Amino acid sequence: WNMSHKAIIIGSTGLIGTHLLELLLADENYSEIIALVRKPIISKTKKLTYIETDFKNLDKVTSQINGDCLFICVGSTMAKAGSKEAFLKIDYNIPVDTAHIAIKNGVKSCVVVSSLGADAESSNFYLQTKGKMEQAIEKLGFQKTVFMRPSLLFGAREEFRFGELIGKFFMKLMGPLFVGPIKKYRGIEGKTVAQAMLKVSLQESKGTKKYESNEIGALKK
Predict the structure, then answer these.
(1) Which of 58, 87, 56, 91 is nearest to 72 (CA)?
(2) DSSP β-bridge partners for residue 5
(3) How far apart are CA 147 and CA 119, in angstroms?
(4) Residue 185 CA to chain centroid, in angstroms?
(5) How confident is the model over 174-221, as pLDDT tens digits?
């Protein structure tokens, strides 16, 4: 590995994305980072370029979506998105459309935040969407595709999610009881997921890998 790796990241202002961006900036394997963002942000370092992006119309930024690894950290909840249609746009269209452009531009690796239980056949709309997103990105045929499937995420978010707060409280309380086959349902820190994403991006591997929540924690070590 040389030092001149270039990362493209979408979802860099979210819980996992914020941590990942910090890690990429500190990692000497990456010399350049392109972050596609909805609202303009001024970069404080030469290494990072923010590109204001209309995610409904990626044509304007097609040429910018090139580098060595695409990191996809976008995601919403049904409640926040407000409708199934809006949720699909964020959790299916944006990741898949961006990955499409990246592969055409010769990007070799794609590391994606998905969800525990992602399954295209699921009767749960959220998990079904995540599963279909995984299928669509895997089909594109990056040299390396990695899906992170975290369970409930711990960490500070910009917006307040009441249901998540209650869930986190019980997860922290009950987490130690999740052992054996249900270990993967334990909550996980957003930063831990980001650390695992950086690590797999630098591994010399090919093909598709999926890491469940408990495996993500092990990767970081």
Answers:
(1) 91
(2) 30
(3) 12
(4) 18
(5) 555 555 555 555 568 889 999 999 999 999 999 999 998 888 988 866
Sign, Cα dihedral of 202, 157, 184, 124? negative
- Rounded to an integer, what distance in angstroms lies between the CA atom of residue 85 and that of residue 109? 28
Amino acid at 118: A
Give the chain's residues under pLDDT 50. 1, 157-160
Both tokens of 18, joined, read 């914020």
pLDDT value for 80 = 87
pLDDT on residue 139: 98
Residues linked to residue 156 through DSSP beta bridges, in sequence order: none
CB 180 within 8 A of CB 140: no
Give the side-chain half-sphere CA count within 13 A for 195: 12
Strand pairing class (144-149; 109-113): parallel
For residue 124, give every residue at least 6 positions away whose Cβ sits within 8 Å of its Cβ, in sequence order, or none.
117
| Cα(183)–Cα(82) distance, integer angstroms | 31
**Looking at residue 159, what is its pLDDT?**
47
